[in-house]
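Hi R.,

Quick one: here's the Sugar ABC transporter substrate-binding protein sequence you asked about.
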Amino acid sequence: MRRTARGIAVLASASLALTVAACGGEDKAAEEQPKADPASLTAELTWWDTSDPQNEGPAFKELIAKFNQTYPNVKINYQSVPFGEAQNKFKTAAQAKSGAPDILRAEVAWVPEFASLGYLYALDGSELLSDASDFLATPLASNKYDGKTYGVPQVTDSLALMYNKELLTKAGISAPPKTWAELKSASQTIKDSTGAEGVYVNPAGYFMLPFMYGEGGDLVDPEAKKIIVNSEQNAAGLAIAKDLIDSGAAAKPSANDAYGTMMTLFKEQKVAMIINGPWEVNNVSSAPDFGGLENLGIAPVPAGSARAGGPVGGHNYVIWSGMPQEKIDAAVAFVKFMASAESQAFLSEKLGLLPTRTSAYQVDAVKNNPVVAAFQAVNEAAVGRPWIPEAGQFFGPLDQMATEVLIQNKDPKAALDGVAKKYKAEVVPGYGL
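And here's the predicted structure, written out as tokens:
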């Protein structure tokens, strides 16, 4: 059963009830009720936060405390759920109609999938979308499925080249590399001049996309309903990543917790450059041995032969369709607060995250934030991902492929052929090869 939150509103403006539509039936909105004091709203909500619990979690807890200043009788049960586990954990709980959170911080690709399964409330006509034009178009688009909107954007991002300014300066490099060839040369120079590794390439599917996009590749063609992940362009992109490691220009990635190893080495100034996103800015800038925010450089990912660009990423707030009817007003109030321009500006100032509202960029704390300015340039070069229900299932096979190519030394084209076969068998069986 797919439910709709059409017509629901925050209690501060108007308290509305929901009419649940049966599958295949028409969605109906209830009539408005008299305005009420926010303090009279009483509910207990569970929120699954999939952000980093040490790096980002404390800022979200601060926002909950701010929310409770206006809504003192809405208790938020904050639960930190590991990002890598949350997608399947939510699906399992939602299917069982037990144990799912009332509100979820969902990765952008998860929303169409969850909506297609009937696990989310549609928000069309609700107070949450009354100012939809204030949201940036690309982040908002990730919340749409089958003509309806099932979430609101929390944060937008993309992958960037993050670098240690001091190490590049010591190596005589005056500007960050703009191509993969320049990055390879710069990495070797840094290693020879400073003793630090030049670059660390994380062997994970999402982090391979800038290499694949750089040669003009992609994963699928939704319009043609075709699997193109094993294209020659993608194989060429992976060969560039592999060559960085094979040549010694890049550090050999760890077979266990490569991401954690990458971040530790970067924070300790043992690696000069990494590919990563704004969610790590606070982690890096607060590291005792890094040298603060002034030592952190941010630039668009280097270009291949076709283009430069990382994947469009980010997270959205969504509401579980199995939530008890009497909690809807409180859930909408909470999401509206968390997705507000004020809350987004707070997170931007605290963590360097990029807002998804146009109005948030007019706040001085955001407008004058050098990290935000740097990542805006990164986002302008970002490559859009297909917002189809299956998009959230693309990265398991890609992760395995990245390990095979960068750690186990498998041929890139052969590894990609394996991904294409898995997509056909398990992810998009209706697509052609």
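The two ends are 33 Å apart (CA to CA).

Cheers,
M.
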